[in-house]
Amino acid sequence: MSDAALDYQRRIPRITRSSITPSPSLIRWTLRTLTVLLFGAATAIGVNLGIGAPEISPTSVVHHDRVASP
Amino acid sequence: MRPLGHTATTLLILVYLGAALAVLQGFVGSGLPIHLGASSVAQVSGMVAGYGAAVMLILMSRAPWLECGVGAHRLARWHAWGAPLVIILTVVHASAAVVAWARAKSTDLLKATNDVLSLPGLITALVGTVILVLIGVASLRVVRRRISYERWHLLHLLTYLAVGLGFAHQLAGPDLVRRMWLQIAWALLYCYAFALVLRWRVFQPAFQLWRHRLKVEDVRQESKDVMSILMSGRHLDELRAEPGQFFRWRFLTRETWRAAYPFSLSAPPTRHGLRITVKAKGDGTRRLFEIPSGTLVFAEGPYGVITRRRRRRPRVLLIAGGVGITSMRSLFEVIDLPGKDVTLVYRAAREQDLVLKHELDEIADRSGARVVYLVGPSSDAANEMSAHALNRIVGDLSDHDVYLCASPRLASRVRDSLMDDGFPRHQLHEERFSL
To answer: Do B176 and A53 touch (CB under 8 A)?
Structure first.
């Protein structure tokens, strides 16, 4: 019994812990799935950013003057 | 330096190919026919700096295929070579662009700077550039020596912010606009680079913390300025760490959580425990000596390729200098050869600098392996670490795989001597890192 339980002279019920621990292979596959999801999200964000990127450069006036722009 | 492996060669080819495309796009973006001047300098330097920044992120992402295929030390060398180039190109790009603007608008540089900064995304790009320059200055050898590793590391983390701040400006750059596929490819390059960093520098250690609950079990004094930190955890065999490898350790106390320290395992890992041995080199590492038991440990790794699997020859020579003994100590215990074929040469300036000596003697007694201590000033001929001297100690050196871990100075002396003597490069295994 814990100190607290001894103080109160009774057994404090514990939250039952699951006796099922994930196997290494389940963890490996979960990590692989998460990695695929992460890169899937990166692909979606990248494509969206690319499609939504400006069509006119703020410095295009200078560019058309055949001079560099920042 | 070991010859490049397949992964490193492929990666280098891809990086150079990408850089060539970026240069080409920079020229094409400034319009045909090509005119050399501030305009094209700004376009090309901007494209290559943007591309280089993403490549630097990828190189430092700690992805296992990079760490194992290329090697932590080589990646760090490429980063140390490439990162200053990216910073210089960024500054050249900004300066050339302002000059070009001033010429186009027939105005002075001050007014041109003001005009340029009023454009969308340019203030954030400027902040990013300033941060990059500050990091570059802090990394100069002369400045780096004056600031602690912890401060430098913290400042270095701002690189991610700096690169992110510059990104919005890049997509709107004249090299990419009106070329949607190029804008998508550029955005994907950056998103994948950040995803790699997130996956291997954040998720993986966080997952390992959850899964293994690695925590400090005990801190044991080995000598006046050397301590061993013993850590315990669950399912540590799943880490597949091997003697000779290292982790980047972040001890989660209020004082030490900011910095990740690369330290080798100083004992073969077990299912329930890991051990590192640390020498105090500054305030940061000295603070590690006061870490209370139970402190959680955020560990990135394992990294490093100098494991027993590298061995090809029938005999092994382990060479350690100072606290470089840590990785050699763990290898010394597990090299799968009869003891008579294993020799450890351990160099230290003073007797009291010999770390873990009692353990080395015990392993040697048990396995029949040989330990040779070279203690005293390096001017003493008996402490010579040349190929000739090592040959004298072990017999036929060419019959050995040589594992080396020492201070940069000693390691370079031994390496140079071995190479000058014609010792095959592929038989020399070393991991170089210093705080």
So the answer is: yes
pLDDT band at B401 (very low <50, low <70, confident <90, very high): very high
CA distances from B259 to B64, B153, B284, B317, B383 (A): 21, 6, 8, 34, 36
Locate the chain B residue with the closest alpha carbon to A27: B211
- Residue B274 has phi, psi (to 5 degrees) of -130, 155
Q: Are B59 and B82 in contact (CB under 8 A)?
A: yes
Q: Which residues of A touch B181 (CB under 8 A)?
A: 50
Contact state of B119 with A54 under an 8 Å Cβ cutoff: no
Interface of B with A in 208-227 (CB under 8 A): 211
- Lowest mean per-residue pLDDT among B21-35, B162-176, B260-274: B21-35
Residues 6+ apart with CB under 8 A from B332: B318, B342, B344, B360, B363, B369
Query: In chain B, positions 233-252, which contact chain A (CB-CB < 8 Å)?
Result: 235, 238
> ipTM score here?
0.77
Say if CB B305 and CB B278 are below 8 A apart: no
In the block, which residue shows the tokens 């038989």?
A: B427
Residue B195 gets which letter from DSSP? H
| Bridge partners, B261 (sequence order) | B249
Q: What would the two tokens of residue B229 be?
A: 């930190």
- Per-residue model confidence as pLDDT tens digits over B159-208: 999 999 999 888 887 778 778 888 999 999 999 999 999 999 999 999 99
Site of tokens 């014609």: B422
Task: Tell me how many degrees the CA angle B380-B382-B384 measures, rounded to the nearest 5.
Answer: 80
Q: What is the mean pLDDT of chain B?
A: 90
Residue B373 φ/ψ, nearest 5 degrees = -95, 125
Closest alpha carbon within chain A to B206: A31
To the nearest whole Å, the CA of B308 is away from the closest chain A CA by 25
pLDDT of the residue at B67:
85
